[in-house]
Design brief:
Structural class: alpha+beta
Order of helices and strands: EHHEHHHHEEHEHEEHHHHHHH
Number of domains: 2
Radius of gyration: 24 Å
Distance between the termini: 55 Å
CATH class of the largest domain: Alpha Beta
Largest sheet: 5 strands, mixed
Low-confidence stretches: 1-9, 332-336
Strand content: 5-15%
Mean pLDDT: 83
Strand order of the largest sheet: 3-4-7-5-6
Amino acid sequence: MRTQVPDAVSSDSVVLPRFVFSAAVAAGADAGTLAREARLPGWLFTVSESRVSSQYAMRLWKLAEWMLRDPLVAFTVGQRHQRGDLSLYDYLFSTSPTLRDGLAVQGEFLHLVTGNSRWAVLSETDGDVTYGYQHSVRAHRGVELGAQFGLTLFCARVRQATGQPVAPVSVGFAQRPPRSHQVLTEAFGTRRVEFDQSVNTLTFRRADLGLPFRGADPVLSGILRAYAATLPPAQAATWYGYFTALLDESLPEMPALAVLAARLAMSPRSLQRHLAEHGTTWQAELDHARRRCAERSRSSTPPALSDLAPQLGYSDARAASRALRRLNIGQPGARS
């Protein structure tokens, strides 16, 4: 069992909370209430590649269970998963040659979806192979629901990829049993579902692990694996980190507070309030962004001031020159 670490260090890809949110809404949860109660930032729905705290998905699971009055909601959602819902991670799995290869790549690249879980072989006998699904954060209801979803998802993916009614030999949960087991039997295809275990597990027959995948594509699989291996280590995004990155990106467009607030899916007043909570202001952040831009320019081949001005969000060189003096940054071509 992995040593548990503080929840604050764990992160998920934005595709995970977005999928949980969409599935809960499709099941009948009110979208506005769910987003508000889960404290989802508006930009979570607009970015394509980013990491967020795992607390978002965990809150969504707990809220979905409460709003839908369904203690088995995670099992239902797991069965509804379609290839592509979890982006690259799904295609890494489905293009693998066999079930054994797919389950291996599932563990190798699980961090692309979530940084708080691990999937690996726990034991292997002549007849069976047991995989463990372990969490690195403190156990609570959100973690339990996430484990229910994870194991159900893994089994659903196996059936989708093989085109066969593959069922695990047994399933183990590191949590207390629910009142009804009927949904579990349907979700996993086995009556051997055990609770109060030390770790979450799925056990498959060794004979099933050789089953080929319908979408097996060795060339594409190799390309996807090579690409996935180049992705940077998982780091949780913060609102402030996303704001500064967006501001840097928008700088050449001469960004206005109202425009950037709209891109963050909030009002200008809300943006100013968020900045105040971080001990800063719009003008201060605009100055910081221009300083970063100027410093990056100086570290490479220094451009002429007329070329640097648009990069800093100014329409002419004189305005850029005044800004550089105010920020105490040397002008291009000037001696240090």
